[in-house]
Every structure is written in C-alpha cells, then in structure tokens.
Amino acid sequence: MIKEITSKDNNKLKHAASLKEAKYRKEYNEFLSEGKKSLDMALQAGNVKEIFTVKPIKNIPDDITQYLVKEELLKKVSSVKNPEGIVFVCNIVNRKPKKLNKVVYLDHINDPGNMGTIMRTALAFDYDAIIVSEGSCDVYNDKAVAASKGAIFSLPVLFGDINEFREGRQVIVSALNEKAVDINDLEKPKSFILVVGNEANGVTKEILDSADIATKIEIKNIDSLNVAIATGILMDHLR
Amino acid sequence: MIKEITSKDNNKLKHAASLKEAKYRKEYNEFLSEGKKSLDMALQAGNVKEIFTVKPIKNIPDDITQYLVKEELLKKVSSVKNPEGIVFVCNIVNRKPKKLNKVVYLDHINDPGNMGTIMRTALAFDYDAIIVSEGSCDVYNDKAVAASKGAIFSLPVLFGDINEFREGRQVIVSALNEKAVDINDLEKPKSFILVVGNEANGVTKEILDSADIATKIEIKNIDSLNVAIATGILMDHLR
Questions:
Q1: Closest to B157 in 3D by CA, of B192, B130, B122
Q2: How confident is the model at residue B81 (pLDDT cuts 50, 70, 90)?
Q3: Closest listed residue to residue A155, CA positions, set A103, A101, A108, A229
Q4: What is the rounded average pLDDT of the residues A142-170?
Q5: Would you give the end-to-end CA distance of chain A in angstroms?
Q6: What do you get for the CA distance between the two ends of chain B, in Å?
C-alpha cells in the first residue's frame, strides 16, 4: 500500500522521528534503519513495519505501507545529512540463536560505530550471536544500525552478564599481559565466548582475571588497535 | 606561554575554527586535533603550533602558546559535542618515509573514520607509509584525525597514483574473484603495496586487473567486511 504524507505534523512521521531517541525505541520496541540494501535484508528477515520513501519502491509486500514523502520530510526521520531516499521502521526482534558455540561478548562497548562494525564482522564470520553487556551503547542507535550494514536483521543479539553464558564455553580475552599467548599460537576451542572490551579501558578486570584464554596481537609504535579491528583479527584467527 | 582568550571574536580562535574546513587546512597547511593523548604524540613529533585549553597543561614547551578559554569558546574550535578540554593546531608535515617496503594504498577511501582507523592500524603494524589516491577523503578531516589516535603525527602520508610507486613492489589487492588466493595461503612479498578500495565499489578496476597478487578473506552471510576490518586482517597476514 502506498500513501502520501505532506505534513510534518503527520502522526506516523512524528512517531517514526521519535525513534531517533533510545527511550522511544525501548517504549515501542522499534528502531529505524536506512537505505535500499538494508531494507532488502530487513524484508528478508520479515522485520519491516513501514517505509518512508521519496519514490515508490517495487516488490514491497502489500501489507507494508510505503509513505511517500518529499525529501524535506524524509530528513525528519533520517539520521544522516543526505539521506539515500529510504528510511524504514523495524521491529526489535528477540531472535533466539540456534546454538551458542561461537559468541562475541561486547564488554562496555561505547561507540555505536564500533558496535555496528563488530555485528557486521560477527555475521561475516558466522558467529551464533553477540552478547551485549550492561553499560554498552544502544544496539539500535542509528550509527550502530548503519555500521552493521544489515547484520542487525539476522544476527541474534543477547543481553546480560557473561557469567550467565560461561558454562561449557571457554572465555577468550585479548590482553597485553605476559601470560597472554601470541595470537598465532592460539588454539581454537570448540565452544567459546570472545570478549572484546571498552575503547578506553579494555576488558573489565573481573573478566580478564577469570578468562580461560588470554591472547595478544603483537603491535608496534602505538598503544592499541581499534576494538573493531582487533575483533576482526581475533575472529579471523578463531575460525 | 599562557594567554587568556575571552572573546569569541578573537583572531587566533577564529583562525583555528576556520581549520574545520578543508579549504582553510589547505591554505594554511594546518589542521586541528583534540585530547591529551593526541597532544602528547603531536608534541613528541614536534607538530604542535598552539593549544586551546580550559586549564593550563603542564610540561608544554614555552614557545607553544596555551590559550586559556572557557568551555563555551572551546566548542568553537572543537568538532565533538563534548570536547575533552584540549584542542590544538598542528602543522601539516610532509614526512619522508625512510623506506617503502610495506605500504598501504588507499584507493578512493570515502569515510574519514575508516581512513583514520587504517592509519592507526598501519602504524601499529609498522607500515612505512600510506599513499592516498586522488578522490579519497581528506586525511586531515577531524574524524580521520580522531580515528587515527595520533598515528597521523608519525605515519608518513604520501599522495598520488599507485603507478608512481609500483616499481620493485608487488601490488596486492583483496578481490572476490576466482583467481584470488585464500588469505591463509598468501605468501608475503618482501616489498609490497597493499591496496584497499572504496567502501561501496571496492578497488578500482584498473588496479584490480593489473595487480600482482589477488587474495580473499572467506566470509559468509553478508556481502563484505568493512574496509578497515579487511585491511586489519590483511595486514595481520602480511607480517
């Protein structure tokens, strides 16, 4: 179904715009995403509620309404300076992972760009789920959603403390201490939780101290790698 | 030397604020950076021209002026919502690389966050320089500088066409075609240029076709990795 919206005071538009804020995402259990590629992935996952677009899009199921809007109105619901012409509302879905053999635990990840990039990388390396610690940024933040490049529509996202998930799984941390084995000597456990830590402070001390395996990526000239880069390298070694 | 600035019309402040725009960075051969950690790296490189700060900083050479400003004025020169309290003006330095055995070529990299993260990673993996293609974003853009985490103060940055640098070096591209060898079977040449391509379109066709080595990172479920993630993984394999 295609409908036109011409007023900035339209309720559907105002509702969608409210989803830019975390509290409304939580209240309505919905979030926003943008662009044709992400839309295709969201449609495939059956996650699309309604679409705001500057021109009609082909092959959209009839029960999903396309709201035709002028560019100026699209900017009300978009989070980018120059929107691609498509913004859509998605349901927040609690996707159950089929198994939990390869999991990444986000320990106080602060930057939504990093969070989204880690989701994208986790999906690419076929992880079963990500677990997001308390104190991490919002998974459904616009920058996280954008950086995930649609991974958010199929990767199961769990929330909680690492200890709820430890049983039967080896906890792997990246650490710079002497006990840490070089990443090239890392043996891949059958079932594991890869922990990646906060941008400024690294992995929480309690998790560092209780980890089963500590590994390090040898670097020079600079303190640390970006957390998403380190995660990518670790995931590549752990497959 | 410490001086106070109380007016938003102060010339030093206005000059620094102008450096948020690429055209003024080019005109004055200067750029802005922020935060204590980056300042330390910039000082070490002898790159700091002047500092705007909300409180005096210790151990700053006397010939570098510290301008004391209120938070409100600091925001004029800062590019972040909540500045850390320190913004400084740096000289753009044409640092000559000592050698060019390990180089990364940025082929139309569009996103300054990716560019900065690649600089940070290149420094961490001890690359001799980065080469930035025409059509890439500005290396001295605030987001690139921030993401580089100070790498911009020591990593030599060259500009130009890849063909000017090819002699005696193997060109390595990441490609998804059938000829590409799996990254785990990649042999490390003595002297090489690692090419990383545009976020949407990948490596330029001409470079793809003329590359000496094509390699691929096996992924699932999603089209591609983020370019900085792919670069990190490639660099890890090439050491």
A1: B130
A2: confident
A3: A103
A4: 96
A5: 45
A6: 45
pTM above 0.90, yes or no: yes
Encoded amino acid at A75, one letter: K
Of B113, B121, B225, the CB nearest to A124: B225
Helices assigned H by DSSP within B110-202? 112-124, 142-148
Q: How far is CA B6 from each of CA A100, B20, B71, B74, B89, rounded to the nearest angstrom? A: 58, 21, 11, 11, 18
Does residue B110 contact residue B199 with C-beta atoms inside 8 Å?
yes
Residue type, position B10, single letter: N
d(CA A66, CA B4): 56
Query: Using the beta-carbon criterion (under 8 Å), do A120 and B233 form an inter-chain contact?
Result: no
Give the CA radius of gyration of chain B. Answer: 20
Inter-chain residue contact A222 with B123, CB threshold 8 Å: yes
Please give the sequence-ordered ranges of beta strands (E in DSSP) within A70-128, or none if there are none.
86-91, 102-107
A85 token code pair: 């012409």
Helices (H), B128-181: 142-148
Q: What is the pLDDT of residue B179?
A: 83
User: How many interchain CB pairs under 8 A, A with B?
Assistant: 88
Residue of B nearest to A233 (CA): B233
Q: Which residues of B touch A223 (CB under 8 A)?
A: 149
Report which of A21, A9, A83, A95 is spatially closest to residue A51, judged by C-alpha positions.
A83
CA–CA–CA angle B129, A201, A24 (5° rounding): 105
Q: Give the tokens for residue A145.
A: 């959603």
Q: How far apart are CA A210 and CA A192, in angstroms?
A: 14
Predicted confidence (pLDDT) per residue in A177-192, tens digit: 778 999 999 999 999 9
| Residue A123 DSSP label | H
CA–centroid distance for B176 within its chain: 26
Instruction: Give the residue among B164, B98, B102 at the shortest CA–CA distance from B130.
Output: B102
Q: Which residues of A lie inside 8 Å of B (Cβ-Cβ)? A: 113, 117, 120-121, 123-126, 147, 149-151, 154, 183, 217, 219-226, 228-230, 232-233, 236
Residue of A nearest to B229 (CA): A229
CA distances from B182 to B90, B218, B236 (A): 42, 7, 14
Q: What is the complex's ipTM, to 2 decimals?
A: 0.94
Q: Which residues of B touch A200 (CB under 8 A)?
A: none
Chain B residues whose C-beta sits inside 8 Å of any chain A C-beta: 113, 117, 120-121, 123-126, 147, 149-151, 154, 183, 217, 219-226, 228-230, 232-233, 236
